[in-house]
Write a structure and sequence with these properties.
Strand content: 5-15%
Largest sheet: 6 strands, mixed
Strand order of the largest sheet: 14-11-1-2-3-15
Number of helices: 42
Radius of gyration: 36 Å
Distance between the termini: 38 Å
Structural class: alpha+beta
Shape: globular
Oligomer: single chain
Length: 1134
C-alpha cells in the first residue's frame, strides 16, 4: 500500500485491440487536479499472426498442436506396446514399420477365411494384419470404453453397410456372403480399385479422383469384429483379449472431477453446467420473481400469482427462433409492455428474457419424427432429461458413471447415426454456474412455491444472511477466452500498480466497444457485418444520388430503407410516399428522447406527421385508424420475412401502446455481456468483497457498452480543447484517443451517464426527423438535443458540475498531448511458448552422400548442425565441393562420417527444422533479435542482428543448459546463427562483434526524425518523416537478416482521417500519403545499417503505468539507448 494515498479514479476504455487506461487525481470538490497515469496498450487480442486467412487465437493453435503431439506420442507408444505384446505371445515381429502396400489387406482376408496350418505362415500373416489394424484403426466414440466398443461390434455399423453397398456395386458376386472389412479391402487391392479418397491422379497407379471403396468412415467396432473372427478361425481365442486391448486401447477424454469447482452452499457437490435443465428453470424463476409492474410514476407492484405462473410457463415452453423479449412476457400476462419493469439482478437490469435454451436447442435440432425427440417427449423425468444433456455436454467421470447407471449410453447408441451426429453438434450453453444441480433444485422448488427470488430462497433454504454472496473469481483468474484474458491482464496490472502507488481508487469506470471483448472469429464476423452494412448503405446512397439527393446522410439512408420496407406507403394512412417526400416519426414518444429502434420508427407522409406531432399514436389515431394501420403492417411482404417478423410484431405492439415510454433507467446502461460481467465481478471481488452495500469505502464499479465516451467528449467539449492531430471530433487515427477516453470515463457517474444516453437518443432523433434543417428558433421545446442537460433538477445540477470538471480535464489532456506525455505501449511476448513453431506444410528432406559434389547452397541447408559446421570449414571460400569418394568427417561430438553415409539437407533456403514427417519452415517463429556491434579498423561503429527462432529453443536449451531464452548462447550450427548476414556472422565468429541488447516484436523505438532524415537511408521512411515527423515507432517484424519492419506507434488503421478516406475512395492519394497508408497498415522496411547507428535511437520498455523503465526490476526488460549501449559493450564509453 502506498504511503501517500490519493483521491483518484480509474477509467478504462476497451477498444478493438487497444485498451486505454487513466488514473486521474481529483480534489474534494470533484475537479481533476492532475493526471497520475495515462496510457494506451495495444494488443493482438490473442490472435495467431501466422493464420492470415482465418482468424484463429494463439490458444486454439497451441491447443491443436498440443493435442496432435499427444495423439502422435500415444500412437507411437501404443504401436510399441503392440509389438512387445506380439513378441511375448511368441510371434516374430519385423524391425521397423512394414511397407505401405496392399499385402496387409490380403493377409486380413486370408486369416478371416481359412485356418492356416503352417505356424510360420500364420506368424507372417497375423503380425502383418494386426499391425495394419493398429495403424488404421478407424473412428470410435472417444467416450467409449473397450467394453462398450465390444458390445457395438456385435452388429455391423451403419458406415460398414455403406462400404458394403459400394463393394457390391464394384465387385458384384465377388463379395463374400458375410464379409469383413479386410475382405473388402483385399478385393479393392486385387482389382486395382481406388481404396481411399485421393486428391488427384497418382503418378504410379494412374488412379484419378473418384468414388473410392471406403466411401464412409471406417469404424473401430467393425475392425474389432474382424479381429474376433480371425481369432476364432485361427483357433487363438485365448489371445483375443490381449490383441483387442493392444490394438484398440485408448485414453478416454474426460474432465477430471477435481478440476470442477465446488458448490459454495453444498461443498460436497460439484458446480453444474449452464446447459442443465435445473439451471434453465432456476434462471427463469429468479427473473420472473423480480419482475415488477409500474402502477404509476412512483410506485410498482409484484406479479400476481396468476401472472407469475403464466410468465414462467411461457418462458419454460418457449421454442421460437428469436429470443423472447420482456414485451412478449408482458403480452402473455396481460400487462402493457411499457409498464413491465425488467428484473434487476446484481444491480444490473436484464435486457432480455431468459428461456429454456437447452430444451429449445434440442427440439430445434431434432425433428418430431426422430427417435431422440420421441424419447424426449415421452419421458416425464426432467432429471433424466437433464442428465442426458449433461451426458452430451459434460465430460466428467461423474457424469459418465451416472449416465451409465441410467442406461443412457445404450439408449444413445440405439438411435440412428444421423441423429447421433446431430446431437453431438447441438450448441448448448458453455460454462458452469455457481451451484450444483441439487442446490438449484432446492432453490427452484422454494422459489416456485413462494414466488420469491434467489435472495429470499437462499436465506430460507440454506440459512445464510443478507450479505452472503457466492464467491467471485479473483482478479488474477483467467476466463479461458483469449481476448478477455488479454484485456484482463492489462487491466489487472494497471489497477494493482495504481493501488500500490496511490492506494485504493474511489471509482473504476469501464467502457468497451462491441469488438473489444470478443474472440478473433466473432470479431471477424462483426467486422464483416459492418463492412456489408457499409457497402449496402453506399449502394443506397448511389441510388439516392441518381434520384437527385446530393450527399445523402445516414438519416436519409435509413428513411429510404424504411420506405422500401413499407412498400412506399405512409404507415398511418396508406398514401404513396417516396424517400424525398416522407418523414420519420416516433410511434411512441418518451421524455428524454424517444426510442429510435426500428420498431418504433414509421415512415409517414407530411400530413400525418404534422397532425400527430409528438403525441402517442394510440391517442391520435383512434380505434378505426389503429386497426387499419395494424392491418397495413400485416399485409407487408416484409412481414412474412422470418428475419423481420419479430420487429414488425413489436411495431404492432408499439402502435397499440396506450402510454408513453418511461425515461431510461440508469441501471439499463450497464453492460450485461459475459465478458463485461467477468471484468466487473473480478474487480468487485478484489476491492469490495466482504464490504456491506452501504459501506462508504466501497469502490464504485461501472461497466458500460456502447458510445458513452464519445457522447461525453462531445458534450464536455473535450475534443475542441485538445485538438488531437488538429481534429475537432474524436480522432481514431491516433490510438492515444483510447487513453483520452479512459480519462473522460473518470468523470462519469451514473446520473451523468444516463443524461448522456438521453442526449444521444435525442440527437439521433434530431437528425432522423431532419430537425437539423430548421433554424433554432423554429424548434419546439425539448427538440434541440444541444440544450438538454437532464430531465430533473438534480440530474441537471450534476450534469452542470460534470461539464465544469470536463473543461478542467480538457486542459489537462491538452497539456499532456503537448508534452507527449500519453504513453502508447504493447505487452511483449517473451515466453518461449509463443504460437506456432513451424508452418503446417511439411516438405520431403533431400539427401546426398557425403562424398557427392556439394554446392555451397546445399551446405548451408544441411540438417545436422555438427555436420554443417564441419562441411562449412571444408567448403571454405569455394562455391562447390567436388565429388570425393575419400571424403570423411570427424565431428566434435565424436561421430565419424564416411563418404558413403547419407547426409540430410533441407529442400529450401528458408530456415527450417526437421520433424518426424519431414522439413518444416520456421520463419514465422522469430522470438527476438540479438543486437551486435563492432568497430572497424577505421573506428567506424557497425551494427548487426541475429534473429532467434523460437522453434529452436528446446534444442538450444539442451545444448546450452540454460532456460533464459534472451541470453542463452546461440549454437553456431543453429538456423538462427546461420541466418545472419555474412559480414555480421564473420564478426561474431572472430570475436570482434559484441552482443549489447535485444529487441522483439512490438518493442517501442524512439528517435529524432531529423536525425534519420540526415543520417538514415534514402527510403520511404525518410520521405514520410519529412512530411509527418513521427518520433515513436514499434517493431512489427524482422523482414530479413538486415531489415526491420516498423510501424508508427501512435497511429492506427482503425479509422483514417476523413480527408484521407475521401482521397482513398477517389484514388487521388499523393505519393507520401500512399507511404503513410502503407506504414499504418503493413509497416515500412528500414535497413539496420542506417537505422541502428542513429544517435537519438532508443528502445523504450514501459511499466504497467506507461512510464519508461530505465532501471532493472527483477527480470523485467529495461529501456536503453542503442548507440551508447553498443559503445559501452565495446568498452569505448563508460
Amino acid at each position: 500500500m502506498s504511503t501517500d494515498p490519493k483521491n483518484y479514479r480509474i477509467g478504462v476504455d476497451v477498444g478493438d485491440r487497444s485498451v486505454g487506461l487513466a488514473a486521474i487525481e481529483f480534489d474534494d470538490a470533484g475537479f481533476p487536479i492532475q493526471k497520475l497515469a495515462l496510457v494506451t496498450f495495444r494488443h493482438d487480442g490473442g490472435l495467431d499472426p501466422t493464420k492470415n486467412k482465418t482468424p484463429v487465437s494463439r490458444k486454439k493453435t497451441r491447443g491443436d498442436a498440443r493435442r496432435t503431439m499427444r495423439m502422435n506420442r500415444r500412437r507411437k507408444q501404443r504401436l510399441r506396446d503392440l509389438d512387445m505384446m506380439l513378441t511375448n505371445l511368441g510371434y516374430t515381429v519385423p524391425e521397423g514399420p512394414e511397407p505401405e502396400t496392399y499385402e496387409a489387406w490380403t493377409s486380413r482376408a486370408l486369416l478371416a477365411s481359412i485356418k492356416l496350418a503352417n505356424v510360420d505362415e500364420l506368424n507372417e500373416h497375423l503380425v502383418r494384419a494386426v499391425r495394419h489394424m493398429a495403424r488404421h484403426r478407424g473412428w470410435a466414440n472417444p467416450w467409449w470404453s473397450i467394453d462398450r466398443l465390444e458390445n457395438a461390434s456385435r452388429e455391423p455399423s451403419e458406415t460398414f453397410e455403406i462400404i458394403l453397398a459400394r463393394a457390391r456395386e464394384l465387385f458384384g458376386e465377388k463379395v463374400p456372403a458375410d464379409p469383413t472389412l479386410g475382405m473388402l479391402g483385399a478385393l479393392a487391392a486385387n482389382n486395382e480399385v481406388l481404396l481411399r479418397p485421393r486428391d488427384g491422379k497418382k503418378k504410379k497407379t494412374g488412379y484419378v479422383r473418384g468414388t473410392p471403396l471406403l466411401v464412409a468412415k471406417v469404424r473401430q467396432e467393425d475392425q474389432l469384429a474382424e479381429l474376433r473372427r480371425i481369432c476364432e478361425i485361427q483357433g487363438i481365442e485365448g489371445q483375443y483379449d490381449a490383441l483387442r486391448s493392444a490394438i484398440f486401447t485408448h485414453k478416454m477424454a474426460y474432465v477430471p472431477t477435481e478440476r470442477v469447482g465446488k458448490d459454495p452452499l453444498n461443498p460436497s457437490k460439484n458446480r453444474t453446467i449452464r446447459a442443465s435443465l435445473e439451471f434453465q428453470e432456476f434462471r427463469i424463476l429468479d427473473s420472473v420473481a423480480n419482475l415488477r409492474v409500474r402502477t404509476d410514476s412512483r410506485s410498482k407492484r409484484e406479479l400476481t400469482e396468476a401472472e407469475y405462473d403464466v410468465a414462467v410457463e411461457f418462458l419454460m415452453s418457449y421454442t421460437a427462433n428469436e429470443q423472447p423479449s420482456w414485451a412478449d412476457v408482458a403480452e402473455v400476462i396481460g400487462v402493457p409492455g411499457n409498464r413491465l419493469i425488467a428484473p434487476v439482478l446484481e444491480d444490473v437490469q436484464q435486457k432480455t428474457a431468459p428461456f429454456d435454451r437447452s430444451s429449445a436447442a434440442f427440439e430445434k435440432a431434432m425433428g418430431k419424427k426422430t427417435e431422440a425427440r420421441q424419447w424426449w417427449e415421452s419421458t416425464d423425468d426432467d432429471q433424466l432429461r437433464s442428465l442426458f444433456i449433461s451426458f452430451l455436454v459434460d465430460a466428467t467421470d461423474d457424469t459418465e458413471e451416472a449416465a451409465a447407471e441410467a442406461g443412457l449410453p445404450e439408449l444413445y447408441m440405439s438411435w440412428p447415426a444421423e441423429e447421433r451426429e446431430v446431437l453431438s453438434d447441438i450448441d448448448f450453453e458453455k460454462g458452469r454456474v455457481a451451484y450444483s444441480q441439487e442446490t438449484l433444485s432446492k432453490l427452484s422448488e422454494y422459489m416456485h412455491e413462494y414466488r420469491v427470488g434467489l435472495h429470499e430462497a437462499r436465506k430460507a433454504v440454506f440459512g445464510v444472511d443478507d450479505t452472503w454472496r457466492p464467491p467471485l473469481d479473483k482478479l488474477d483468474e483467467q476466463t479461458g477466452q483469449p481476448t478477455v484474458d488479454r484485456v484482463l491482464t492489462i487491466l489487472r496490472r494497471f489497477v494493482l500498480d495504481c493501488e500500490r502507488q496511490w492506494g485504493r481508487p474511489r471509482a473504476i469506470t469501464v467502457e468497451h466497444a462491441r469488438t473489444g471483448l470478443v474472440g478473433p472469429a466473432q470479431r471477424q464476423e462483426i467486422l464483416n457485418e459492418q463492412k456489408k452494412n457499409r457497402e449496402n448503405n453506399e449502394l443506397i446512397r448511389g441510388d439516392l444520388r441518381k434520384s437527385g439527393v446530393e450527399n445523402p446522410s445516414r438519416a436519409e439512408v435509413r428513411r429510404h430503407l424504411i420506405v422500401q420496407e413499407q412498400e412506399s406507403q405512409c404507415l398511418y394512412c396508406g398514401a404513396v410516399i417516396r424517400t424525398d417526400t416522407s418523414e420519420l416519426d416516433h410511434i411512441v414518444p418518451r421524455a428524454g428522447g424517444g426510442s429510435s429502434r426500428r420498431e418504433n420508427m414509421a415512415a409517414v407522409c407530411h400530413y400525418c406527421n404534422s397532425k400527430k406531432k409528438r403525441t402517442l399514436f394510440y391517442d391520435w389515431a383512434g380505434p378505426v385508424k389503429l386497426q387499419e394501420t395494424v392491418d397495413r403492417v400485416r399485409q407487408l411482404e416484409a412481414f412474412k420475412d422470418s428475419k423481420k417478423a419479430k420487429m414488425f410484431k413489436n411495431q404492432i405492439r408499439r402502435l397499440k401502446q396506450t402510454e408513453a415510454d418511461v425515461p431510461i433507467d440508469e441501471r439499463s446502461l450497464a453492460s450485461t455481456s459475459y465478458a463485461a460481467v467477468a471484468v466487473r465481478e473480478r474487480l468487485e471481488q478484489h476491492f469490495n468483497e466482504g464490504l456491506a452495500p452501504d459501506d462508504k469505502s466501497r469502490v464504485v464499479l461501472d461497466v458500460y457498452a456502447g458510445a458513452v465516451t464519445r457522447e461525453s467528449r462531445r458534450a464536455g467539449g473535450i475534443d475542441e480543447r485538445i485538438l488531437l492531430r488538429g481534429e475537432r471530433d474524436k480522432n481514431r487515427f491516433d490510438v492515444r484517443h483510447h487513453a483520452i477516453d479512459a480519462a473522460v470515463m473518470t468523470l462519469l457517474n451514473r446520473s451523468v451517464a444516463l443524461t448522456l444516453e438521453q442526449r444521444s437518443q435525442l440527437r439521433r432523433a434530431f437528425y432522423e426527423l431532419e430537425l437539423d434543417k430548421l433554424d433554432r428558433d423554429q424548434l419546439k421545446p425539448g427538440e434541440d438535443w444541444r440544450n438538454f442537460t437532464g430531465l430533473y433538477e438534480a440530474s441537471q445540477n450534476k450534469f452542470s458540475e460534470w461539464k465544469k470538471a470536463a473543461t478542467v480535464l480538457g486542459d489537462l489532456l491538452a497539456e499532456a498531448i503537448e508534452d507527449d506525455a500519453i504513453a502508447v505501449a504493447s505487452p511483449l511476448r517473451l515466453r518461449p511458448q509463443n504460437g506456432s513453431v513451424h508452418d503446417d506444410t511439411i516438405n520431403a528432406v533431400k539427401k546426398l552422400t557425403l562424398g557427392s559434389a556439394w554446392p555451397a547452397d546445399a551446405v548451408k541447408r544441411i540438417v545436422d548442425p555438427e555436420i554443417y559446421l564441419a562441411m562449412k570449414d571444408v567448403l571454405g571460400k569455394l562455391k562447390e565441393l567436388p565429388e570425393d569418394s575419400a571424403r570423411s568427417l570427424e565431428l566434435s561430438d565424436g561421430r565419424y562420417i564416411e563418404a558413403d553415409d547419407e547426409v540430410l539437407f533441407f529442400p529450401k533456403k528458408a530456415a527450417s527444422i526437421l520433424t518426424p514427417r519431414g522439413a518444416a519452415e520456421i520463419g514465422n517463429s522469430i522470438h527476438h533479435a540479438r543486437l551486435y556491434s563492432w568497430l572497424t579498423k577505421k573506428s567506424e561503429l557497425k551494427f548487426g542482428m541475429l534473429r532467434v527462432y523460437g522453434a529452436e529453443f528446446p534444442w538450444l536449451m539442451r545444448e546450452s543448459g540454460s532456460r533464459d531464452v534472451l541470453h542463452m548462447p546461440i549454437h553456431p550450427g543453429s538456423q538462427s546463427f546461420r541466418g545472419m548476414q555474412d559480414g555480421v556472422r564473420k564478426a561474431v565468429e572472430s570475436g570482434e562483434a559484441v552482443e549489447f541488447g535485444w529487441i522483439t516484436q512490438d518493442d517501442e523505438l524512439e528517435f529524432d526524425p531529423e536525425d534519420y532524415i540526415a543520417h538514415g537511408g534514402d527510403d520511404e521512411l525518410n520521405r514520410l518523416l519529412r512530411v509527418m515527423p513521427e518520433r515513436r515507432w514499434r517493431v512489427d517484424g524482422f523482414y530479413n537478416a538486415g531489415t526491420l519492419r516498423i510501424r508508427p506507434a501512435l497511429l492506427s488503421a482503425e479509422q483514417l482521417p476523413s480527408e484521407l478516406q475521401k482521397k482513398v475512395a477517389d484514388k487521388t492519394l499523393s505519393d507520401v500519403e500512399v507511404i503513410l497508408l502503407r506504414a499504418v497498415q503493413r509497416g515500412l522496411f528500414v535497413a539496420i545499417s542506417g537505422f541502428l547507428p542513429l544517435e537519438s535511437l532508443k528502445v523504450i520498455r514501459r511499466n504497467n503505468l506507461g512510464f519508461p523503465r530505465w532501471r532493472g526490476n527483477g527480470n523485467l526488460p529495461t529501456s536503453f539507448e542503442v548507440r551508447s549501449s553498443a559503445l559501452r559493450a565495446l568498452g569505448v564509453e563508460g
